[in-house]
Write a structure and sequence with these properties.
The complex is a heterodimer of chains A (271) and B (278). By secondary structure, chain A is α/β, with parallel strands linked by helices. Chain A has ten helices and nine strands. Chain B is mainly alpha-helical. The chains are: A alpha/beta (271), B mainly alpha (278).
Chain lengths: 271, 278
């Protein structure tokens, strides 16, 4: 395949041989509520290798978002621990379900917000912010306000904000969940090419089977109450992947398999 | 076409306000002459205007006196009010103690405290400014606390994910988010500062428009009383529009100030009080 010419060296190494970027060791989370203790996460153990794209797939409320938030240190685990390699939490970009753009800032100033938070020189990053917005088709919108943009454009800007400080880890919490299907497809393609052209490790939470299969090197299926890993599926489609692979028999087979796993763990109500 | 209609009403809006006020003044002048109201009860408009014009220097001096006390009280209220609100929002202890004290104090009729300020601070400007602060600061504190507290949970998450200091969180997220609330409080505080300054001048003073009203009343110079009231109305209105202007400059991004209709998605995302999503 022509793939090898564009793939960088450490991506060329088999995924299993690459050094780990995220080590999740027996992480559990119990919430105390008025009705007593609720176990959101059982004991989850997972290694994500450097440069890998891993999706956490599961029904809503299964604790996959909780797991992502624990990795980002937005929540503390009740048991177990998470170890991040490299720049650790400093090298982390987070994309939320909602774009969370600030209305009092222009688009480019929203993108530059993490730089201000980290006390770095904003002026040195302005050109990078402009380039990032450009790669996501937002050139000319730098000085617009968030409410002047469509939902898809807003989420693109939010992704630029997560990428501005060149993070090693990109954590995404159902970032395209609120978008229409066509915008979602397009953003999946854009996200894939961005990830391929950088050396980022991605942890992606979704409840869309086809999104998970399309984007991932590995899909981790999580069941609910409490959240546990019930299946880890390798996705071996060559990259770059076009949206057409969704019509291939293998894509259908993997999707059906994942749906079967989710069904077995009660994600769907049987008709 | 609907857009031309909108533009036309936009043009009419400002004259409409002036027209209403002008009509009110005409009504005053004509009612006094038609019903032959004694000048000692309600002097006609032309007499009041003549009084102002012939003693223009005197009224200017008194107005500036009242105005400077009002603005000083307003500035102190904003400074201390926002400061107190930040402290209250950041400290559970202060929330339980200071906020409780403030709310209790707010329920005391503050005008009743004016004589105390004269005892403590004398009959000079200090007691008037203190009165203005006392009356207006609560509006700022209460609105600022509300605004500072209503940071949406996902914005808090955003700040935490960027791993900034508490100061960054306050300056870059919490304060800008609270600005519309704080400005709403400032609008109320501005008019209350003027009330405070006048009350202070009523209690003990040798100058200012409040003093003019009180001494003119003693001499039954109703024209002077009306002259001072008319000027106060002008000052109050000017200060109100000053605040409107400030709002336009400081929060052009706020929903109420947007020139274009926001997409439906943004409206749905706008309410500050939203429960976090799982």
């Amino acid at each position: 395949m022509a793939l090898a010419a564009t793939t960088r060296i450490d991506n060329a190494a088999p995924a299993a041989k690459r050094p780990p970027a995220i080590e999740i060791e027996a992480v559990g989370k119990v919430y105390q509520s008025s009705g007593g203790a609720v176990s959101a996460l059982g004991s989850v153990t997972l290694d994500v290798r450097k440069g890998e794209f891993v999706s956490l797939l599961g029904p809503s409320g299964c604790g996959k978002t909780t797991l992502l938030r624990i990795v980002a240190d937005l929540e503390h685990p009740t048991s177990g621990r998470v170890h991040l390699h490299g720049r650790a939490l400093d090298g982390l970009g987070f994309v939320f379900q909602r774009d969370v753009l600030l209305n009092w800032r222009t688009i480019i100033d929203n993108v530059l917000l993490p730089i201000e938070f980290k006390n770095k020189k904003v002026r040195a990053y302005r050109e990078r912010a402009r380039e990032l917005l450009g790669t996501f088709g937002l050139q000319g919108f730098e000085n617009k306000r968030p409410w002047e943009l469509s939902g898809g454009m807003r989420q693109r800007a939010a992704i630029c904000r997560a990428l501005i400080d060149d993070p090693e880890l990109l954590l995404m919490d159902e970032p395209f969940g609120a978008l229409d299907a066509m915008t979602r497809d397009q953003l999946n393609v854009e996200l894939q090419s961005l990830w391929r052209n950088s050396s980022k490790t991605a942890l992606f939470v979704t409840h869309s089977i086809s999104e998970a299969v399309f984007l991932s090197d590995r899909v981790v299926v999580i069941s609910d109450k409490p959240g546990r890993i019930v299946e880890v599926l390798d996705i071996d489609f060559p990259r770059p992947r076009s949206l057409d692979i969704r019509d291939e028999a293998e894509f259908g087979r993997l999707s059906r398999h994942l749906r079967g796993v989710l069904e077995r763990y009660g994600a769907f109500r049987r008709a | 076409m609907s857009w031309t209609g909108k533009m036309r009403t936009g043009k009419i809006r400002i004259p409409a306000e002036i027209w209403t006020l002008a009509a009110l003044l005409v009504l005053w002048q004509s009612a006094v002459s038609i019903f032959k109201v004694p000048e000692i009860l309600v002097p006609p408009l032309n007499v009041v205007v003549r009084e102002i014009v012939t003693h223009a220097d005197f009224y200017l001096e008194q107005s500036l006196h009242t105005l400077s006390n009002t603005l000083a009280a307003f500035a102190l209220s904003v400074l201390f009010g926002v400061g107190l609100a930040i402290a209250i929002v950041h400290s559970r202890f202060l929330e339980r103690t200071l906020y409780t004290v403030l709310v209790t104090l707010n329920n005391v009729p503050k005008i009743a405290l004016a004589p105390l300020f004269v005892i403590w601070l004398g009959t000079g400007n200090a007691s008037k400014i203190a009165m203005g602060v006392m009356i207006s600061i609560f509006a700022i504190v209460i609105d600022a606390v509300l605004g500072l507290r209503s940071l949406p949970p996902d914005v808090i998450d955003l700040g935490r994910a960027m791993r900034g200091s508490g100061l960054k969180m306050l300056l870059k997220l919490r304060l800008p988010n609270a600005l519309p609330s704080i400005i709403a409080g400032m609008k109320v505080a501005m008019s209350l500062s003027l009330v405070g300054a006048i009350v202070g001048e009523f209690v003990a003073a040798q100058n200012g428009l409040g003093f003019v009203i009180l001494s003119a009343q003693g001499m039954f110079r109703t024209d002077r009383v009306f002259a001072a009231i008319l000027i106060l109305a002008l000052i109050g209105t000017a200060l109100f529009y000053l605040m409107e202007l400030l709002e336009r400059i400081l929060i052009p991004w706020h929903e109420s100030r947007r020139s274009i209709a926001p997409p439906a998605l943004v409206v749905a995302a706008a309410p500050p009080l939203q429960s976090g999503s799982a």
